[in-house]
Amino acid sequence: MKSKRTLNRFRTEWDLETQRMKSTGEAESGGDDVSAAGERAPENSGAESRDHLTGLLTLESFLDAVRGRVLQARRHGRLTGVLYVGLNDVKRVNDTFGMQFGDILIRQAATRLRSAVREADVLARVGGVNFAVALEPFDTVDDALIVADRFLDLLSETFNLFELADHPVGISANVGVSLYPNHARSSADLIRCAAMALGEAEQQGANRVEVFDRERGEETKARMELEWMLRRAIDKREFALWFQPEIDLRTGAIIQREALLRWRHPQLGQIAPARFVPIAEETGLIVPLGNWVIREACLEAWKWQHTGDAGIGVAVNVSALQLAKPNFAGTVQVVLRETGLSGELLELELTESALMANFEKSVLELSRLRDYGISVVIDDFGVGYSSLSYLKELPVSGVKLDRSFLRDIEGNRHTLPLLKSMVSLAHVLNMRVTAEGVETQAQLDAIRTIGVDTAQGYLLGMPAPMGGEKASSAASS
After folding, report:
1. What tens digit of pLDDT does each residue of 174-222 get?
2. Which of 52, 210, 215, 257 is deepest in the core (most CB within 10 A)?
3. Cβ-contact 298, 346 below 8 angstroms
4. What is the domain range of residue 91?
5. How many domains does the chain have?
6. Is 59 among the domain residues?
7. What's the DSSP call for residue 88?
8. For the purposes of burial, counting CB atoms within 10 Å of the CB of 60, is it exposed (0-12), middle (13-18) or buried (19 or more)?
């Protein structure tokens, strides 16, 4: 499968860069001792470092090769670049047939890639399933992309792994492309940009070629820095819990508080959950972080029972990754036992997508949670699956209407009747209905008329650390 690319921007960048180099004399005067990034030409320091499996250069020697191609391109006012190739299915082969066959596959892939490069190109194995090519200087972006497409064509052909000759193996691959001088001027940065472009290609799907995009590259770099800070924040205990009250619309009383994770960085200050939670999900850090939230929330709720807030429970958001862990319900039960909080005072919130990721396991875990007295509600209800057949099978005690409905309640005449139907359905199934994101009196009045049981939002009570909470009088008016 060929990738679609917009190349005019890269051609324009190169045309402008070539004109600049010629006007300043860089194309002619750049000797091969110093590159545009201040690198010295590679010296012959002995035998090249070779990969034991494929016989190709390793990353250390590949850096020297890229440095040499950059110097050549600079001297002659031409392009050069790095292609970063990733094989996608080696783990599947390892798991199915054994690691020795994965090694055979990698060797065969290396042979095919070697046959596709030109004599002056340099091929290396730079990681477990990653290869890279330093291209001899060329004149147009298309020259590099032709090689990249040739790689994908060769790697898409089935492999025969000797003893498995009757079971041909097919794999997919992706290629990231970076160009000198458009994207980087040093060999290390050129390789880094190609690797980032490969990551973009892999996110787009199999058998894709992606050229490095500087704007996306900066975003990726920022995300990596935030991930590093997030890991450090967990070790340094930079997180805290704030709580937002959930109000009974009939009595105006607080029935429970939702625990909300907050991160205060020592230099950057408050970092919004919308920035760090998606990264925590992607990296798996949400599991230890989420487990910490459950424990801290239970400890705080236990204090309430002994300081004048007896009977007020706590609600905690749970991610799909947490629910997928073996014996999740047992893990929560241990927290309850160690903190002394009754299960009836803990409510876990899960989105429909989290529950549907593995429906059978979800039913099993939720049933065990219910046996421990813990209730579960479906968060962001109405924007996911919302299947009646699934809803009646899940052992949940309530639903939380997605806040997008409330935002639309005053501007769309269909929203309130739709919400009324959802509330009626939940009540038929003996479920409590909560509306979140209540910010105006009109919204509060509307959800009261359709029978919503409880609500939370800025109108009713702002999130705050314990001791700073103030429930609004709007709930009882």
Report:
1. 999 999 999 998 999 999 999 999 999 998 899 999 999 877 767 777 8
2. 257
3. yes
4. 8-212
5. 2
6. yes
7. S
8. exposed
